[in-house]
Amino acid sequence: MKTMNIKIATLSVAFAASSLVISSCNSLTKTQKGAAIGAGAGGTVGALIGKAAGNTALGAIIGGAVGGTAGAFIGRKMDRQAAEIQNTVPGATVIRQGEGIIVKFDSGILFDFNKSDVKDAGKTNISNLATSMKNNPETNILIIGHTDDVGSDTYNQGLSERRANSVRDYAVAQGVSSARLKTEGKGESEPIGDNTTDAGRAANRRVEIVIVANDQMKEQAKQAGN
């Protein structure tokens, strides 16, 4: 398992407001980065640059950021949960950024080729992730399905939706509240690899699970910062 850093840049007003802050982030912890980026960008979704995850996943984190000392409080909680997931979900790639976590599964871990039923190895991984979700109830979760570009746009969109829904349904079966879970299918529209190569297509076939603070955690964070 590996943890990956993502560089995030924003354009227009958000970029102008945050460029000096982001340029100094290399010397900061991820928690401090979350506070700095949230404060500089004002929690606004700009243009997102990253090769490890799709823009929908990154946008969910940046769009919900509160920044400042509250963002640092949330970041510390996310640090702890990310470490928990790294230790208990061996099939996942954990991407820790700002005020959230992206847990990425290559589709081959969760599904057989061209299928949307979760296979046994995938069930074990989702079950372990569901335990972390239950241990950290003050979060919301977005499950995003992705495909490569083989096949029609319409078919790939449907497959990505079915896979995201299957992950949600299995997490619910493991005791995660359905009210915390949302799904989205992006089909082939957010590649992170080169669809002209086998390796690139394999990278694009994935499920991303985004974990962010819910309103209760945000309120706690704001009170802790007062």
Automatic annotation (TrEMBL):
Family annotation (Pfam families): Gly-zipper_Omp, OmpA
CDD domains, A to Z: OmpA_C-like
GO cellular component terms listed in the entry, alphabetical order: cell outer membrane
OmpA-like domain span: 98-215
Main location: membrane
Signal peptide: 1-23
Residue segments, region Disordered: 178-201
The keyword Zinc appears for this protein: no
Keywords tagged on the record: Cell outer membrane, Membrane, Signal
Entry's localization field: Cell outer membrane
Protein known as: OmpA family protein
Organism encoding this protein: Hufsiella arboris
